[in-house]
Design brief:
Length: 503
């Protein structure tokens, strides 16, 4: 018989997130839902009463990672009366009953389409003393209508669409997230405005394919219009988006990026492969020449844009010639960084049924060559920035060596990570403030700004911001100190109301 906890006690929770930015944003919704239902976040080192896994199913190790974590929690739960475990996200949508079969100590399994059901499922499981499984095949409510616990006071995700209409042979996302569903522009802009009103100075527009936004309601130019509309929001200093699809990337989006001052000179453009034959087998409806033309067009309008990408190594049937085509495109593209993946079979995808799988040893050797090439290119590109001045949005995380070096961290307009020192006697910035620094040192994937080594004498300039003020309020509120002004960015925000359809 399962032990139960005192129902009058406040229950604590922890959300563990695996996967992409969409999962991170969904976890903000999950946290908001739980806090709106009376749960409190578990403190550092505190064993939570509820652990929620928000899972990814894109790569093969996702299964092992989840079940390994669940196995580690079994004995913890046995010794923690009333503890519950819930599994959601893409892997839950895919595996469903399998999760409970493999880990019968799990209390709730919910899918990508019914995040809003989680509190009720937890209560039902607790009452009935049995596992609850609820997976919907279509979206129940758009996630933006749910309460949200934002991770950051100064920056936020804003989902503009969910789902995907593409049929890439390696990808399981469309079957788990469903067909693309677009939000109305007014709802998106209202959420952006609400974030800005709460102190945020940066938003990232999020979708599986952001640049196909508007197709559902018949406006193929909707994404470019949305970028321009974000440029009209006072106090919004930085706008980013991820991820577009090369096949749907149009000139009007490039023009909107270049002509809207708060849209940052940064672009994530997934290549996947530089071989036209492999792109065809992947059902990626573009070819390498078109991909390179897009990059040329972006750089013609925004010469200092940083472009990142995704690349899969070892797709079924990939020959050495195909792989060399990828190396050639990477060399020509001059990516600032690349997310590189070794192909892994995902059950339920067409590529997983292909017979000509590439041996693991060959995939590994190619992967190492690709990462070595990208490391060299990244180092060459960051070296060009030494001596330039960059305005950084200061982040809350100082990096793994922050305590050792005494440096803080920030993001440049092109989203490059910069570790910087504050001169002796200068005012310290808060997360959300802006600092202007001169770059003094370059590494492949980060930059360093040390005012004492600045040959230009530019030094260090601090610009305090509304986002920094919001950070102060959030810190004071977390200590129980009452503060004036708007709600802190770390608060749980109510979901955005949907627009009433016209009669």
């Amino acid at each position: 018989m399962t032990l139960t906890a005192d129902p009058r006690a406040e229950r604590t929770y922890q959300v563990r997130t695996f996967g992409c930015q969409m999962n991170v944003h969904d976890s903000e919704r999950i946290s908001g839902l739980l806090e709106s239902s009376g749960y409190a976040p578990a403190g550092e080192g505190v064993e939570p009463d509820l652990v929620v896994f928000n899972t990814c199913a894109v790569r093969e190790n996702a299964d092992n990672r989840l079940y390994g974590n669940l196995g580690n929690l079994r004995s913890v739960k046995d010794n923690h009366p009333g503890m519950q475990i819930a599994v959601g996200g893409c892997l839950a949508q895919k595996d469903q009953q399998t999760i409970i079969s493999k880990a019968p100590w799990v209390d709730v399994v919910f899918g990508t389409h019914n995040i809003g059901s989680l509190p009720a499922l937890l209560e039902r499981s607790r009452h009935n003393q049995q596992a609850e499984l609820e997976i919907l095949e279509a979206l129940e409510v758009f996630p933006s209508t749910l309460p949200t616990k934002r991770d950051s006071t100064y920056s936020g995700w804003v989902s503009i669409s969910v789902g995907c209409n593409n049929t890439c042979t390696f990808c399981i996302v469309p079957s788990l997230r469903g067909k693309e569903k677009d939000r109305r522009p007014g709802e998106i802009l209202a959420e952006v405005q609400a974030l800005v009103d709460g102190g945020a100075v940066e938003v990232t527009l999020l979708g599986q394919n952001v640049n196909t936004y508007g197709v559902e309601f018949g406006d193929r130019g909707a994404f470019a219009k949305l970028l321009r509309a974000c440029g009209q929001i006072e106090g919004l200093e930085r706008v980013r988006f991820t991820s577009p699809h090369p096949a749907s990337f149009t000139e009007d989006v490039i023009e909107a990026m270049a002509e809207t001052p708060n849209v940052m000179p940064q672009l994530h453009m997934p290549l996947q492969s530089g071989s036209d034959r492999i792109l065809k087998d992947m059902r990626r409806s573009y070819r390498s020449a078109k991909f390179l033309r897009i990059l040329d067009s972006v750089r013609e309008r925004m010469p200092h844009a940083a472009i990142t990408t995704d690349i899969i190594v070892g797709f079924p049937g990939e020959t050495e010639e195909d792989f060399q085509d990828t190396l050639d495109v990477v060399e020509a593209s001059r990516f600032s960084s690349a997310f590189t993946f070794q192909y892994s079979i995902r059950p339920g995808t067409p590529a997983g049924e292909m017979q000509n799988q590439v041996p693991k040893a060959i995939v590994q050797e190619r992967f190492e060559r690709l990462t070595a090439l990208q490391d060299r290119i990244s180092a060459e590109e960051t070296q060009k920035l030494v001596g330039t001045c960059q305005e950084l949005l200061v982040t809350a995380h100082a990096g793994t060596k922050g305590a050792e070096t005494g440096r803080l961290s920030g993001r440049a307009p092109d989203n490059r990570l910069v570790h910087f020192s504050v001169p002796a006697g200068a005012e310290q910035p808060r997360p959300g403030d802006f600092v202007t620094v001169a770059i003094t040192e370059a590494h492949p994937y980060h930059l360093v700004a040390d005012p004492e080594l600045d040959p230009t004498g530019t030094g260090y300039t601090l610009r305090r911001s509304r986002a920094g003020d919001a950070w102060d309020r959030a810190q004071a509120d977390s200590c129980g100190v009452p503060t004036a002004g708007t709600a802190p960015g770390g608060a749980t925000l109510l979901g955005m109301p949907t627009l009433r359809p016209r009669s």
